[in-house]
């Protein structure tokens, strides 16, 4: 099991467009990934409804978990998405 | 009857109501007659079909709408939702009922969280309705199609509805639900549609009745009197006249000329800006040339071709080109590839160009060459200048390379405070109010949590503008404004009162600012500026000037 704890960089939190980008990337990853806010319940990171309903805001910490071959690379990629501010254009 | 809600924008509309069809009834909780597997196949098929249709609409709509529609498509095929539907189908429910229950459970969860998430509940309701309509073989609920323009009245508009609205047919949007951050409001703002959202009694309006929708007042008037309709039509005509009027040069009521210029990000938009009455270009951003060039800087020849195209659109007019402003929100690896903790305070603007002086020299050379073969009056300026020494460096380098009129942007408080010494070196100054506000209030303009500090009405920012204005007047040199502040019709007057001699803005704001300037004399503008400077904060400054404007003016007979 590989885990990463990440601080959210998107100024509007993990809703709408950032949530869509993150979920799309998680769904495309070869390994199943879960995401939890703080020490809350982990949800399927490929579920946009699950991700949105976490109510993650800018500056919140979330923990990503995955396992198997390539889990490290998958989490690196997803971490990058979470620390980026997608709302600045 | 007069109903109130939250108005989006300043415009007004009059027209007949067209109601959005009411949502489909909740499917009855009856036992499936065709078995779990057959229901499951129906559900999967409909969910997929709706997802594909939403993706198609997204691709057609583009922009912000595309992201929202793609997110909705993902909701339709969400794995968590799919698990929940399967579980309900396993209990012997029909596909319609299972879809309805599963979506409703998530919807309630989002609605209970309130705020932004609560407003996403409408997105989910919309997907559920589309899937149920598909299962039932009935048309999906959507925007009414009428031959005549109408005022669309709905509970709330889902992104899929707003994305494909025929703007020629929609006079205004009125919703009973949804707040200022709902999709209806966001899209109304983006597409400049008159809208009033959150009007509690909106659904009491009947198809075909005439209403006056006033976004400025946040009101919807049903059964309006003839006078009310006439007043609204007069405002609509004024507004149209404002936009269509042959653009006269910007000037105050006493005839003081205040040239109105355009902010442009590419030479392609130059002709359109000239058509909208821009008397030149006050800020031409050159980043796109470098961002589009891939991993390296464009050649002198490539740059010159772009500058020639730009300058040819404004023969005989002033065109102010800003040198490459990389860094902070627009990183360019060939200029600065170091990771910075505080990029807004880092190696950006002129600081970065100075480190890669060959890039700066090439850009200045390309500009000087373009200037030689065109008739526009080319001015150049450096971004993010923070010392007098940097001013001297840039001005002498640009002149050495053949540029005639060379100035600096005022974005950093240090240089505004030393404006006298800066104006002795530079031919002009142009104030970038967005960055000047960010640096004065020490609030990252890209950070939502401190967005409330980013208000150019703040007297601290205005005082700095005043310093530059006064220094420009003493030196007999022009001071322009090229930030978003210049696009605020009332603040534009204050900025002129503080000494701005030209205003530059996105072309769509020109008509409103031109009309606002023409109402006041230079003495009045100076009085408003004093009023704003005397306030203790941004909101107070805006309120005090608004009150001063609305108090009876001395009449000139």
Automatic annotation (TrEMBL), chain A:
Its main location: cytoplasm. It is found in: Cytoplasm. Keywords: Cytoplasm, Phosphotransferase system. CDD domains: PTS-HPr_like (cd00367). InterPro entries: HPr, HPr-like, HPr-like_sf. One of its GO terms (cellular component) is cytoplasm. GO terms for biological process: phosphoenolpyruvate-dependent sugar phosphotransferase system. Residues 1-89 form the HPr domain. It holds the Pfam family PTS-HPr. This is HPr family phosphocarrier protein. It comes from Labedella phragmitis. The lineage of its organism: Bacteria, Bacillati, Actinomycetota, Actinomycetes, Micrococcales.
Automatic annotation (TrEMBL), chain B:
Pfam families: PEP-utilisers_N, PEP-utilizers, PEP-utilizers_C. One of its GO terms (cellular component) is cytoplasm. The keyword Magnesium applies. GO terms for biological process: phosphoenolpyruvate-dependent sugar phosphotransferase system. It is found in: Cytoplasm. Signal peptide: none annotated. General (non sugar-specific) component of the phosphoenolpyruvate-dependent sugar phosphotransferase system (sugar PTS). This major carbohydrate active-transport system catalyzes the phosphorylation of incoming sugar substrates concomitantly with their translocation across the cell membrane. Enzyme I transfers the phosphoryl group from phosphoenolpyruvate (PEP) to the phosphoryl carrier protein (HPr). This is Phosphoenolpyruvate-protein phosphotransferase. It comes from Labedella phragmitis. The lineage of its organism: Bacteria, Bacillati, Actinomycetota, Actinomycetes, Micrococcales. The gene is ptsP.
């Amino acid at each position: 099991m590989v885990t990463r704890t990440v601080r959210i960089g998107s100024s509007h939190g993990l809703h709408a467009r950032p949530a869509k980008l993150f979920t799309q990337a998680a769904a495309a990853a070869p390994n199943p990934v879960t995401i939890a806010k703080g020490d809350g319940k982990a949800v399927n990171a490929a579920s946009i409804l699950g991700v949105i309903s976490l109510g993650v805001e800018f500056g919140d910490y979330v923990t990503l978990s995955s396992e198997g071959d390539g889990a490290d690379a998958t989490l690196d990629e997803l971490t990058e998405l979470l620390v980026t501010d997608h709302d600045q254009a | 009857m007069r109903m109130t809600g939250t108005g989006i924008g300043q415009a007004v509309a009059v027209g007949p109501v067209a109601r959005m069809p009411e949502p489909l009834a909740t499917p009855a909780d009856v036992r499936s007659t065709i078995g779990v597997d057959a229901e499951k196949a129906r559900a999967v098929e409909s969910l997929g079909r709706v997802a594909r249709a939403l993706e198609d609409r997204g691709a057609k709509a583009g922009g912000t709408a595309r992201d929202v529609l793609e997110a909705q498509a993902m909701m339709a095929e969400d794995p968590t939702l799919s698990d929940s539907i399967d579980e309900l189908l396993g209990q012997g429910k029909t596909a319609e009922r299972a879809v309805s229950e599963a979506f409703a459970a998530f919807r309630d969860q989002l609605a209970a969280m309130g705020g932004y998430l609560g407003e996403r509940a409408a997105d989910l309701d919309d997907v559920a309705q589309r899937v149920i309509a598909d299962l039932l073989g009935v048309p999906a609920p959507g925007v009414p199609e009428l031959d005549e323009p109408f005022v669309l009245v709905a509970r709330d508009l889902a992104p899929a509805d707003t994305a494909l609205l025929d703007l020629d047919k929609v006079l205004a949007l009125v919703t009973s639900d949804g707040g200022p951050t709902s999709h209806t409001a966001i899209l109304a703002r983006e597409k400049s549609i008159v809208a009033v959202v959150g009007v509690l009694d909106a659904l009491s309006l009947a198809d075909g009745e005439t209403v006056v929708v006033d976004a400025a007042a946040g009101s919807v008037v049903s059964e309006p009197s003839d006078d009310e309709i006439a007043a609204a039509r007069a405002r609509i005509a004024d507004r149209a006249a404002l936009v269509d009027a042959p653009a006269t040069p910007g000037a105050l009521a006493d005839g003081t000329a205040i040239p109105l210029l355009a902010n442009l990000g590419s030479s392609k938009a130059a002709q359109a800006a000239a058509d909208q009455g821009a008397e030149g270009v006050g800020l031409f951003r050159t980043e796109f040339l470098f961002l589009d060039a891939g991993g390296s800087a464009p050649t002198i020849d490539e740059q010159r071709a772009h500058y020639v195209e730009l300058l040819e659109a404004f023969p005989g007019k002033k065109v102010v080109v800003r040198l490459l402003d990389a860094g902070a929100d627009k990183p360019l690896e060939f200029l600065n590839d170091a990771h910075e903790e505080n990029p807004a305070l880092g190696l950006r603007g002129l600081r970065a160009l100075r480190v890669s002086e060959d890039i700066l020299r090439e850009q200045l050379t390309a500009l000087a060459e373009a200037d030689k073969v065109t008739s526009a009056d080319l001015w150049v300026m450096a971004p993010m200048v923070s010392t007098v020494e940097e001013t001297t460096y840039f001005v002498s380098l640009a002149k050495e390379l053949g540029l005639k009129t060379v100035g600096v942007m005022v974005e950093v408080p240090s240089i505004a405070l030393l404006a006298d010494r800066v104006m002795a070196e530079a031919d002009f100054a142009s104030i970038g109010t967005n960055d000047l506000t960010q640096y004065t209030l020490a609030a990252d303009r890209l950070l939502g949590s401190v967005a409330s500090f980013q208000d150019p009405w703040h007297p601290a920012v205005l005082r700095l503008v005043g310093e530059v204005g006064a220094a420009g007047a003493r030196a007999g040199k022009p001071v322009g404004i090229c930030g978003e502040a210049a696009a605020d019709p009332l603040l534009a007057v204050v900025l002129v009162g503080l000494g701005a001699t030209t205003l530059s803005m996105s072309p769509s704001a020109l008509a409103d600012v031109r009309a606002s300037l023409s109402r006041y004399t230079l003495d009045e503008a100076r009085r408003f500026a004093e009023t704003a400077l005397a306030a203790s904060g941004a909101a107070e400054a805006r309120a005090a000037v608004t009150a001063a404007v609305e108090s009876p003016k001395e009449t000139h007979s």
